[in-house]
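Example complex used in Figure S2.
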Amino acid sequence: MTSGPAKRGRRPGAPDTRAAILDAARSLFATQGYSGTTIRAVAAAAGVDGALVHHYFGTKDDLFVAALDIPVDPRQILAPVVAGGADGAAERFLLAFLSVWDDPDVRPALLTVARTMMEPATQRVFADGFLPVVIGPLGVALDLDRPELRMPLVASQVVGLILLRYVLLVEPLASMPTEQVVATYAPTLQRYLTGPLP
Amino acid sequence: MTSGPAKRGRRPGAPDTRAAILDAARSLFATQGYSGTTIRAVAAAAGVDGALVHHYFGTKDDLFVAALDIPVDPRQILAPVVAGGADGAAERFLLAFLSVWDDPDVRPALLTVARTMMEPATQRVFADGFLPVVIGPLGVALDLDRPELRMPLVASQVVGLILLRYVLLVEPLASMPTEQVVATYAPTLQRYLTGPLP
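Predicted assembly (396 residues):
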């Protein structure tokens, strides 16, 4: 068999196959949530075999991060935060996080993801996806006590900071130098990570 | 002249005149922002005299709060926070704030406002409206130093808390008892209100 236009849509490595898988994954994660989405369902929706989804995208976590369609893998950004341990993790987290958001090449894509996570139709992507796949494991890797409480507290401050600084462009936050943002928010986040909590 | 169906739309006290003013105000605040909206422009858009707008709604601040269409005036809710002074203001603020958001009769309207403030087309309502009309004056009334810095910090945590607890329903925040939320977030907000800041 030779390749040709008629077969293009079914060729495993073809860009449109990858795109079809990503489209199906985005749609299912948004409507069914992370836990309600299976690789099998994504494969069926994309009209391919489940093994092909694993072959191109790895685990379900990897597929979820790929479906976010941001030019960075947040788990890689967070690796140095984890490597340093819980002590001082808030400051390292803020530095890593701001270096990505303050990059003008990356910010537009992040803004799209942030808006998606707040729209009623797709907001499950955050609570039932981004939180367990990206933020939750950070708390476990840092070996925190009560990570299931602490990481949502961290998220509640970081999400508000993103909204005011990057989405709503509220001053003086929107123009505040990185070092000042880090120094302002690090005590809050460090208390949420390792401080005494009720 | 006698009243009749043909005159109903122009009668000053008629419900549809009030509604027309509120519609015009909502549309203008959303698209022009608070500072870009004048009583004169609202009156013109509603087809009434400016004096009538003042007569029914008071000041521009009052009109803005009325246009939010929530069953409480946030400025009244915040009055006891101000009355107690800056010491302990974070705890009083959280108690006042949660009493409103945790009221099932009020929450749906607040959710609508919160969503409006995050939509791209209407997000100026927050940065150029809610913040200067409702949140900013709180910092001035509490006689804080640098209120123009401190109140956006407070807002950045409160907005994130609203999002995770009430909009995205992230656990354990969504089910957390009021007292625990207050005890968890009061130290953060009190530092933003009165603590040392970089």
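The domain at 17-67 of chain A is CATH 1.10.10.60 (Arc Repressor Mutant, subunit A). Chain A touches chain B through 38 residues (CB under 8 Å).
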